[in-house]
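tool=predict chain=A
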Amino acid sequence: MSGTTQTLRPRTVTLPGGLRLETVEQGDPGGPVVVLVHGWPDSWFSWSRVLAHLDPRLHVVAYSQRGFGGSDHPRAGYAVDRLAEDLVALCEVLGIGRAHLVGHSHGSFVVRRAAEEHPGLVDRMVLVDSADRVGGRLAAEVRAAIADLPDDVPEGFVREFAASAVYRPVEPAFFDALVAEGRRAPGWVYRDAWEEMVAVDDRDRLGAVTAPTLLVWGDRDALFDRGQQDRLLAALPDARLRIHEGTGHCPNWECPRALAADLDAFLLPGRRDTRAASPGGAGGSGRSGGR
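tool=predict ok
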């Protein structure tokens, strides 16, 4: 059923306290709920190519986090704890009692924190090109690159950073739209959100996550390496790894149909298969169950 054209339902959702978040929904309103959380410095649009291929039985919600895309850009609140609170509040406002949470890169840290703090909300969890933590040379290099970014972030900077995150060619019109979305966040949001992600160290909390977890990783990821995936596998009680060969940091841009198939297989009863869920499956490896 993947690959069918679905109608996106845009909506601005106001959280308690007044923060407005840009959202889109698609699929069966009565189906299993999937919430997609984008990376830094993207918006809901970074999932648009995946949305086109997801099974229409899923009720999918994608949103732009505070500071990004068409959501409000408040001057504070970019700690991962606060972003996870936004995610939980969004679910409450939408009447979502339980959901599958999917996070890419920066969004994976937000999803993890929601699972740590609100285990009753999370059915299954998918972390796309995540890491056990962000630090070392990568943290320092990006910090230096964004130190003097103006509020109106230059197109060239966004284009260069986005290009550095991919390995496979990305359709030019889509890439141009990604760059335009990335420029909607002001420079100070880039800095605040990056520093707050670098500050996160939840490695001692991952063992308490109860949600079955799928890790998805591109083996040409220039930001987060295989060792980080293996450390996440060791830390999470019920996790497995799906590897996309010849893919960079953004499978949601580079191989959206394949990523949608991973999500369908892992999140929909009757669609789950050994490719995504079993150790040693095609294109992946993993561990399920005991540590």
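The mean pLDDT is 92. The first strand starts at residue 9 and ends at 14.
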